[in-house]
Amino acid sequence: MQQCEPRGSGTPGLAAVIPACNEEASIGLAISNALLAGAGSVHVVVNGSTDGTARRARVAGAPVRVHEFEQRLGVDVPRAVGLLISLSGVSYPAGAFLF
Questions:
Q1: Buried b vs exposed e over 55-92: b needs ≥16 C-beta within 10 Å?
Q2: Phi, psi (deg, nearest 5) at residue 54
């Protein structure tokens, strides 16, 4: 897949939440697409990954924030966690949530 280059700085207050598990090959494209769609920030909630998803997401740089959990949480829980984080503007350590 070809990765798109984000344009502009996005819309402040508009956050994209991307749940990810073993998405090392595609996370860069997902982040780029979120930024191209106008997201002012991107929260990648990595859960249960055994590959380099979190590392790849971190190298995307600002305005990307990576929240990593060792447990596999499915899709709905990371979406909720990402929503909570994006609304609060606070970054929580992984141990702050019990599942």
A1: ebbbebeebbbbbbbeeebeeebbbebbeebbeeeeee
A2: -65, -45
Which helix (H) or strand (E) element contains residue 82? helix 76-88
pTM of the model: 0.73
Sequence-separated (6 or more) residues with CB below 8 Å from residue 48: 21, 22, 69, 70, 71, 72, 73
Sites in the chain below the pLDDT cut of 50: 1-8, 92-99
CA dihedral 10→94→59→73, nearest 10 degrees, is -80
Angle at 52 between CA 86 and CA 38, to 5 degrees: 35
